[in-house]
Specification:
The protein has 333 residues and is α/β, with parallel strands linked by helices. The chain has 16 helices and five strands. This is Solute carrier family 26 member 6.
């Protein structure tokens, strides 16, 4: 815990002063420096070497250039004077509290992480404060991936650029071909949410549709009405509400929709569960006669798909589209 706190304070101060005075800092080099400085003192029960928050701020504000100032202060100035110097020179740090309303308006999540970390560090201890800050930040990132939703895309008449239909006016879609985008990585924590969001946006859940069709055919077979048309059965009142809704869903959705394009440009990575989710989407829609293809995959996503065995039948069946336009033209042809 001492090593983590010392490294965090040193790097934070280094980056703050580097930004102020116009130079760069390598965090790895700072870590090596702290480690080498603590090797020899560790055998003699010395204090851990790292940057001191208050003293560093005081010395920087007074124009200190070397460590000789520490010797002069310790020899000639009483503690009360040093305390006043520290309080006065920490005015800049204390002014950060006045920025809380602006931080809250800019980004409530980041402001909440800052407040929780600051409160834990001040009221409990620095080690637990840093740990809580890291965990809260990690959970916030995880929560953002859980809130991502599938968007349906369209394109203007004069360009080949696709954007969200709900965000822009004047976009048009392609008959029989729908384009969707998911702006988050697909991994074990959100793969089921990705499928639910996609099925809801498409308007056709292939898993439920398949179950409805099996139930519908099974009941018709038991009643001996397999050759009766849907219109005649509805007129005769022999189809219950579930069967009629399921059949209507299949007739209205899948007859007009023949292909799906998933834009993967915003997907940063895929794990094994994410690749399996894409496999299930392709397989479930294929059973309804709807073809699913991927477009604009990054190199890392392509590697994840390759390692996860996404492409059936090997290299000969591997179809990759670098643009959405190429995928749409392929499906329309």
């Amino acid at each position: 815990s001492i090593a983590i706190v010392g490294f965090a304070i040193t790097v934070s101060l280094s980056e703050m002063f580097a930004k102020k005075h116009g130079y760069t800092v390598d965090a790895n080099q700072e870590m090596y420096a702290i480690g080498f400085c603590n090797i020899l003192p560790s055998f003699f029960r010395c204090f851990t070497t790292s940057a001191a928050l208050t003293k560093t701020l005081v010395k920087e504000s007074t124009g200190c250039q070397t460590q000789l100032l520490t010797f002069a202060l310790s020899c000639f100035l009483p503690r009360c004077v040093l305390a006043v110097i520290i309080v006065v020179n920490l005015r800049g740090a204390l002014r950060k509290f006045a920025e809380i309303p602006h931080m809250w308006r800019a980004n409530r999540i980041d402001a909440s992480v800052w407040l929780i970390t600051m409160a834990t560090s001040a009221l409990v201890n620095t080690e637990l404060g840093l740990l809580v800050g890291v965990l809260v930040s990690a959970f916030c990132v995880l929560g953002r991936t859980q809130q991502a939703q599938v968007m349906e895309l369209g394109r203007p008449t004069t360009r080949e650029h696709y954007e969200d239909l709900a965000s822009y006016r004047g976009l048009r879609t392609h008959p029989g071909v729908a384009v969707f985008r998911y702006s988050a990585p697909i991994y074990y924590a959100n793969q089921s949410l990705f499928k639910k969001s996609l099925y809801r946006r498409v308007g056709l859940d292939p898993v439920k549709e398949k179950a409805y069709r099996i139930k519908f055919n099974k009941k018709n077979k038991q009643q001996g009405h397999t050759n009766v048309k849907l219109e005649e059965k509805e007129a005769a009142g022999k189809v219950d509400e579930v069967e009629a809704g399921a059949t209507a869903t299949f007739m209205n959705s899948s007859c007009s929709l023949r292909s799906l394009v998933i834009d993967c440009s915003s997907i940063l990575f895929l794990d094994t569960a994410g690749v399996n989710a894409l496999k299930e989407v392709r397989k479930d829609y294929a059973e309804l006669g709807i073809k699913v293809v991927l477009a604009q995959c990054s190199a890392s996503v392509l590697d994840d798909l390759e390692r996860g065995g996404y492409y059936p039948g090997g290299e000969e069946n591997k179809v990759i589209f670098f643009t959405i336009t190429d995928a749409v033209h392929y499906l329309q042809s």
